Structures are given as structure tokens and as C-alpha cells.
């Protein structure tokens, strides 16, 4: 056998990406070849503990056996018929998801951004048809620091300059107020406001948990002013924070849930808008749709995912192991870590910026076998698959401690 340079396969794969993949991401130099549970193996055979879980799309772990078995079975039956016909998987999926959410109807889509776009359309239509807002006059209140995806309308109400610059003209009809400030939100609502759209815990912003009374106050304001409360639970929902929905931490039930990521079991893109008939009932044939939305393969996987969530096992795991994660990360306070935020197996970690950028620390961690993602500046995000073990959490945090120490933390 001819010995090859240890990194040849990695370098070749990255060189091909550089040539032919649009440069809209800046990935770490790790080339995944296979994955199982909480672990990813690269093209060199090196193993990494995945502490990002594809931004919560892999909540149940890579290739969860029951989800993969469901997918295989459905591949042998029917995968796509479009919504031009019925399929025997869509009704059961929507019924199960509606029940999980305590709502009546489900609008199935594919990506998270599509769910958000769909939620915006539904809110505007509801505003015109039900609330009586003059056509074209509706407003939606959003929060500073939001991340809801990257379509033209969604970036129109983002305050991330990188996501916006050069992509105008922007969609009007949005008002942005500071996240966590209920007075500012109240002041932004007027008679033409149809919705408040929020992430209950802001993910991309750095896992920002709002003040305790914020979401209950938002809920009350929405009810008082006949405004839809739309919770974007695409990243925070489906057991990530230790509850089925992040809103559950505050006992808040929004009018509309936006779901995605983990709903597709880490196998297919599957997203949804979930609400009562009084809201989603405003859509009629031809007003909205997607060729792949609610396809039988995705719906079959969605049924399995909802079934797994119904037992509460993953929510409990996330809550219990989240305590371990937060305790271990908390021990690094003053040793390179300045703050730790989050709920369940979801943590935003502010590092001492003198030790390096979040990207540099992520790179150093990848070299030690731990995959995480930086958000802004020197903040790291930990969101491992919920099948991770306490021992693996210890191992990952020890590696973070070693990287920070190497860079002079605590000295
Ligand atoms: C809260 C939230 N909403 C929407 C999206 C967009 O989802 P997608 O990338 O599937 O379009 C994301 C993606 O990270 C998200 O975190």
C-alpha cells in the first residue's frame, strides 16, 4: 500500500469546494464522510464530537436508527407526489404535529426560511381578512438581533449588515424593537399591527434568553391588541431547550408556531406553520404552496419525529444534560469564559476576546476533536445532539479548557 499524506483527502475535497461551491459560508476545514449519534467522522477517518448538531436539525443524533428505518421504508413506498394529489402520510403527520402543538392546522413547507415567509404571509392575510387592516398597510413587529433566515423579505427586517448589504430593495412593513424590552414592543404596536414575530430565545444572536416577564407580557400585549404572536421555534423548539418548545419555559402559548430543522429528523428538510383554523384557515387553494412541501418521505419522517417527542424522553435528556453542560462551562468562568447563557443543551459562551476570535477558538477545538460554531465576535455556541452523554460533555468542555489555557486564559 502506498502511504498518502494524512490530509490529502481533506485538501482535495476543500480545493474542489473552493472551485465550485458558492462562497456563502466559511466552514472549518473538516470534511465529513459519515456520522452516527453525536459523532462525525471525516474523510481521513478522524472522529469529532458534534457540538453543533446542524444548528439543531440533528437534535435526535446523526442517523437515529428509528428515523433512518422510517426513511428506508418510505423510500420503498412513495417519496413525492406533490400536493396535486393526497398522500397517505400527510394527514397523519399534520394531525400528530397539530396535537403536539395544541393547535388545529399545519401548513407543511421545507426550509425554516420558508416557514417564516409563510408565517408572514398568513399573518398579513389574517390582518386583511379577519382583523380588517387595509390591504398593504399591515405591520409586523420584530426584534433587534433577530435571525429568521435569509430570503429577501426576511433580511429586510434583519439588523445584520452582512446579511443585508447589497440585497435591497427591501420589503416594507416591519418594525424592529430591542429584544427583551416589552415597553418598546408595546409602543411599536398600532391598529395596523398584525403580528409580533420573535424567537423566544434568540439563537444566532448568541443564545439570548429574555427577562423572565418578557414573553408573558408579549403574549398579553398580543391578546390585548388583537395581534398574532408568532414564535419562531425553528431552532429553539422540539426539545432543544429541555421543553418541547422554548415558550413552555414561560408557560406561553403563541398563536403561531414556526417549526423546522429537527422536524425533518436530520434527514430531510421539513418545516411547518402551526396554528388554529381561525388563523391558518385564511389560506385558500392557489394562495400558497411548495412542490415538495409535505411530501410523503418528509411526512413519514415527521410522524416518527413527533412520536419521539411525545414520549418526553428527549426533552428530559436535554434538561438534565443541559444542567451538566451549563455547570461544566460555568466552571470556566474567569478561565477564559466571561458568560454562559441558555437553556437545556443550548449554550452561548462569551469568551475573553483577548484569547482569540470565536472562529479561531472553533478551529483550535476542531483540531482537538470538538466541533462548535462561533456566532458574533468571541461567542461560541454549543448545541450538541440530544443523544450526547454526560461523559462526552465533560470531554468537550475539558478540550475547551485546554484550548483556552493554551491561549493564556487565567494567567
Ligand atoms: C430561528 C431561526 N429561524 C429560521 C431559520 C432559517 O432556517 P433555514 O436555514 O432552514 O432556512 C433559522 C436558521 O438558523 C433559525 O435559527
UniProtKB/TrEMBL annotation:
Its EC number is 2.6.1.13. Transmembrane segments: none annotated. Its cofactor is pyridoxal 5'-phosphate. InterPro entries: Aminotrans_3 (IPR005814), Aminotrans_3_PPA_site (IPR049704), Class-III_PLP-dep_AT (IPR050103), Orn_aminotrans (IPR010164), PyrdxlP-dep_Trfase (IPR015424), PyrdxlP-dep_Trfase_major (IPR015421), PyrdxlP-dep_Trfase_small (IPR015422). Pathway: Amino-acid biosynthesis; L-proline biosynthesis; L-glutamate 5-semialdehyde from L-ornithine: step 1/1. GO terms for molecular function: identical protein binding; ornithine aminotransferase activity; pyridoxal phosphate binding. Keywords: Amino-acid biosynthesis, Aminotransferase, Proline biosynthesis, Pyridoxal phosphate, Transferase. Gene3D superfamilies: Aspartate Aminotransferase, domain 1, Type I PLP-dependent aspartate aminotransferase-like (Major domain). GO terms for biological process: L-proline biosynthetic process. SUPFAM superfamilies: PLP-dependent transferases. It comes from the Bacteria. CDD domains: OAT_like. Belongs to the class-III pyridoxal-phosphate-dependent aminotransferase family. This is ornithine aminotransferase. It comes from Mycolicibacterium madagascariense. The lineage of its organism: Bacteria, Bacillati, Actinomycetota, Actinomycetes, Mycobacteriales.
